[in-house]
Design brief:
Residues 1-18 have a biased composition (Polar residues). With 287 residues, the protein is an alpha+beta fold. It folds into two domains: 7-102, 2-Layer Sandwich (D-amino Acid Aminotransferase, Chain A, domain 1); 108-285, Alpha-Beta Barrel (D-amino Acid Aminotransferase, Chain A, domain 2). The protein has helices at 42-53, 57-73, 157-166, 216-222, 234-238, 273-285; strands spanning 7-10, 24-34, 81-90, 93-102, 113-121, 136-139, 142-145, 175-181, 187-190, 194-199, 202-206, 227-230, 242-247, 251-260, 265-268. The strands form three sheets. Strands 5, 8, 9, 10, 11, 12, 13, 14 and 15 form a nine-stranded mixed beta sheet that branches. Strands 1-4-3-2 form a four-stranded antiparallel beta sheet, covered by helices on one side. A hairpin with a 2-residue loop joins strand 3 and strand 4 (93-102).
Length: 287
């Protein structure tokens, strides 16, 4: 079978290669899924981008047109594609681009993830846009613009430090995904996903009002299922009936275990019916 070729598009025109993330002095990141010739959650990605970048209508129309073109160009990709959009400043000028690669027929995500508690503390600034407005809200470490919180930044050094912790241990062959806490010990998110916790017949997700990335898949799910946002700690996670993670590329993925090496606590997590129901919802409505 012929390998599908990656797709590239930039604000300076289509090209065969794109600059490294390190060439951006500041920037935002959106990671999307393309399927059947479209990007199903594009409207939510564009809404978050518009909020975090304070993008005007002209820029939004350019980005939307490029994203829709990328979607059409990946229509023949059997398993869909992973689309990466970047916006920021490079060499002193505003710049944006897209890169799309085919998704694999089988992925480690298909088997669920093993959550590993990270010692790296998540800071509010890790999700505060550099393209700030004048409106401000109090965070645990100062003030941040109202529209600038919950953004996904291109500069991800804190997440990279946390990810380095995962390489220091063995995780029984399952996909390891770091679990991040804030300075007060509240669980906030995973490295690449938002967290979903099932308890007492209800879905809960961590309070993201002052810390963490507000993911588009979480936002979509909250519009189709009842999900409460609460302060959650490690005991809440360890005592959950079911755990899952979600993001805009992989949808909903069951958590099959959780480990906290620093305090020697762990628990296997069987995939449950509520998680399966969310997965079915995504499959029916999105892809």
């Amino acid at each position: 079978m012929t390998q599908s070729a990656p797709q590239f598009y930039s604000s300076s025109g289509s090209q065969q290669s794109l600059p490294d993330d390190g060439e951006f002095s500041s920037g935002l990141l959106e990671t999307m899924r393309a399927v059947n010739g479209a990007i199903p959650l594009l409207f939510l990605h564009l809404a978050r981008f518009a909020r975090c970048a304070h993008a005007d209508s002209f820029l939004l129309s350019q980005v939307q047109a490029a994203a829709e073109s990328i979607g059409r160009n990946t229509a023949c990709w059997r398993y869909g594609g992973r689309v990466r959009f970047r916006y920021g400043f490079r060499q002193g000028e505003a710049y944006w681009d897209f890169a799309a690669v085919p998704l694999e027929s089988e992925s480690p995500w298909d088997l669920g993830v093993n959550l590993i508690c990270c010692e790296t503390v998540l800071e509010p600034e890790a999700a505060i846009s550099p393209f700030a407005s004048s409106l401000a809200t109090e965070t645990r470490s100062g003030c941040a613009p109202v529209s600038a919180a919950g953004c996904k930044l291109l500069q991800r050094s804190l997440y990279e430090r946390a990810a380095a912790e995962l390489s220091q241990g063995s995780h029984a062959g399952t996909l390891a995904e770091g679990l991040l806490f804030d300075s007060q010990g509240y669980v906030i998110e995973a490295l690449r996903c938002n967290l979903l916790l099932r308890k007492g017949g209800r879905w809960l997700t961590p309070d993201l009002s002052r810390c963490g990335v507000r993911g588009v898949m979480l936002e979509w799910l909250a519009g189709h299922a009842e999900i409460g946002e609460h302060h959650l700690n490690l005991d809440d996670v360890l005592n959950a009936d079911e755990l899952a993670v979600c993001n805009g590329v992989r949808g909903v993925v069951p958590v099959v275990g959780i480990q906290c090496p620093a305090i020697e606590r762990s628990r296997p997590m069987p995939a449950g019916p509520a998680t399966s129901a969310l997965q079915q919802l995504v499959a029916e409505k999105l892809w």
